[in-house]
Write a structure and sequence with these properties.
Keywords: Chromosome, Methyltransferase, Nucleus, S-adenosyl-L-methionine, Transferase
InterPro entries: AWS_dom (IPR006560), SET2_Histone-Lys_MeTrsfase (IPR050777), SET_dom_sf (IPR046341)
Distance between the termini: 15 Å
GO molecular function, one term: histone methyltransferase activity
Helix content: under 10%
Subcellular location: Chromosome; Nucleus
Number of helices: 1
Organism: Noccaea caerulescens (Alpine penny-cress)
Number of strands: 3
Shape: flat
Structural class: little secondary structure
Strand order of the largest sheet: 1-2-3
Order of helices and strands: EHEE
Length: 119
């Protein structure tokens, strides 16, 4: 994933950083989720209604839990895997006066919408 910067700020260089594509658990091994702990929603995908796949009425959405690939009844049509699929909102970095670098949305962001993963 690449960030876009404001073209009016071409002279300002981004601070050095290393972009990673997944978490690197350096202090402990990543624990696999136990199958019995996976929260499986009861959504049903309807081809006549594309918004039916894990929308605002999905139990996992309501509890801020992403559906687990391979377990969601909606399969590839699931809309509740934005974190796992890196489906980020469109953004750009800007240098603000006296405050350093900031992230600005390039599209409307709705209340509760997933924006981006960061660490």
């Amino acid at each position: 994933m690449q960030f876009s910067c404001d073209p009016d700020q071409e002279g300002d260089e981004l601070p050095q950083y290393e972009h990673i594509y997944q978490n690197d658990f350096s202090y402990r091994k990543h624990k696999k989720q136990k199958e019995e702990d996976i929260s499986i929603c009861e959504c049903k995908f309807d081809f006549g209604d594309p918004d039916s796949a894990c929308g605002e009425r999905c139990l996992n959405v309501i509890t801020n839990t992403e559906c687990t690939p391979g377990y969601c009844p909606c399969g590839v049509y699931c809309k509740n895997q934005k974190y796992q699929k890196c489906e980020y909102a469109k953004t750009k970095l800007i240098k603000s006066e006296g405050r350093g670098w900031g992230l600005v949305a390039l599209e409307e962001i709705k209340e509760g919408q997933f924006i981006i993963e960061y660490c």
